TrEMBL record:
This is 8-oxo-dGTP diphosphatase. Belongs to the Nudix hydrolase family. It comes from Rhodanobacter ginsenosidimutans. Gene3D superfamilies: Aldolase class I, Nucleoside Triphosphate Pyrophosphohydrolase. It is an enzyme of class 3 (hydrolase). It catalyses: 8-oxo-dGTP + H2O = 8-oxo-dGMP + diphosphate + H(+); 8-oxo-GTP + H2O = 8-oxo-GMP + diphosphate + H(+). Its EC number is 3.6.1.55. One of its GO terms (molecular function) is hydrolase activity. The keyword DNA repair applies. Keywords: DNA damage, DNA repair, DNA replication, Hydrolase, Magnesium, Metal-binding, Mutator protein. InterPro entries: Aldolase_TIM, MutT-like, MutY_C, Nudix_hydrolase, NUDIX_hydrolase-like_dom_sf, NUDIX_hydrolase_CS, NUDIX_hydrolase_dom, ThiamineP_synth_sf. The keyword DNA repair applies. Its cofactor is Mg(2+). Residues 1-125 form the Nudix hydrolase domain.
Length: 312
């Protein structure tokens, strides 16, 4: 079943949610306006029809957000989500559904239809995900504190602290030092691998491939991000089963940090990202200026080390 869903975003960045009426599948859950494609209809035509029928608005501008394959108990669907940023008319409830406008950051994902949680993350997550270089020595502690702070001030909103040469406590200390700035700018920090540290600090964690397969459930509450390093369809499926918020998929191209690895290339990346039920960042040989190319291949954005830091 192919279902189109619209993230209507107003000038203040708020998102329109609708409540599924009693008697329907997932009654009471909040969702994105939309519905099933009719025979012979294109996704955009279905989107225009559904928004006219449900809300009385005419779509003027829609861009692809993310496609989520999902399996409920009795049926499977492809949830094909679009960002609708221009429309004519004032959205109103034409089918008795409750409506509300909320900033994506304020939406309680526990109240959403389960397949909509990755859509919400796709709206919340930025286009770029810088990662600290694995060979940074502890003596460069001050330098990396400055680099991370400058990146946050310059607009980065999602940053991974991956410093395997440092003692865990030094990485935790660095994260703790940066937290007030990160909170002021609405940026999220993720520790690499260190679930206990992330839990103690209230930040996110980026799981290594080896950790991913040993975990049976989400190790942190919903408000703390969980990311996973993935390289194939099986690892992506595992990340989804675990309830990870997003994944990195690598290596897309050849990269200095993993010279022996065979690159996926964009076509394979695209196929894997689209089949995965979560936002996926392209990693490996990426630069910050490649996010358009990555998004065209179904990515949430680009992740990387070289070129992502103010001093590099
Ligand atoms: N419209 C919509 N459907 C969603 C969302 N998330 C989600 O899991 N679904 C599921 O996708 C399917 C779409 O069904 P629908 O009832 O909205 O479709 P429709 O408007 O064509 O309704 P109808 O069956 O009354 O004709 C349902 O199984 C619904 O639970 C969402 O955000 N929007």
């Amino acid at each position: 079943m192919h279902v189109v869903a619209a993230a209507l975003i107003d000038a203040d960045g708020r998102l329109l949610l609708a409540q599924r009426p009693p008697g329907k599948h997932l009654a009471g859950a909040w969702e994105f306006p939309g519905g099933k494609l009719e025979a012979g209809e294109t996704p955009l035509a279905a989107l225009a029809r559904e928004l006219d029928e449900e809300l009385g608005v005419a779509v003027e501008q829609a861009t692809p957000l993310i496609r989520i394959p999902w399996r409920y108990n009795h049926h499977e669907l492809l949830l094909d989500a679009w960002c609708v940023t221009r429309w004519r008319g004032e959205p109103r409830s034409l089918e008795g559904q409750a409506l509300r406008w909320q900033l994506p950051i304020d939406v309680d994902q526990a109240l959403l239809a389960p397949a909509d949680r990755p859509l919400l993350q796709a709206l919340r997550l930025p286009k770029s995900y810088p990662i600290t270089p694995a060979d940074a020595p502890l003596v460069q502690r001050d330098h990396w504190r400055e680099q991370l702070a400058a990146a946050i001030v310059h607009g980065e909103r999602l940053l991974q602290l991956r410093l395997p040469l440092w003692p865990r406590d030094a990485v935790r200390e660095l994260a703790a030092d940066l937290l007030p700035l990160a909170e002021r700018y609405g940026a999220q920090l993720l520790l690499n691998e260190d679930i206990d540290g992330a839990r103690a600090l209230g930040v996110g964690v980026h799981l290594k491939k080896a950790q991913l397969v040993t975990l049976a459930e989400r190790p942190l509450p919903w408000r703390q991000l969980i990311a996973a390093s993935c390289h194939d369809a099986e690892e992506l499926a595992h990340a989804v089963a675990l309830g990870a918020d997003f994944a990195t998929l690598s290596p897309v191209a050849t990269t200095a940090s993993h010279p022996g690895a065979t690159p996926l290339g964009w076509p394979a990346f695209h196929a894997l990202a689209e089949a995965a039920a979560l936002p996926v960042y392209a990693l490996g040989g990426m630069g910050p200026s490649m996010s358009r190319e990555a998004c065209a291949a179904g990515a949430q954005g680009v992740a990387g080390i070289g070129g992502f830091w103010p001093d590099s």
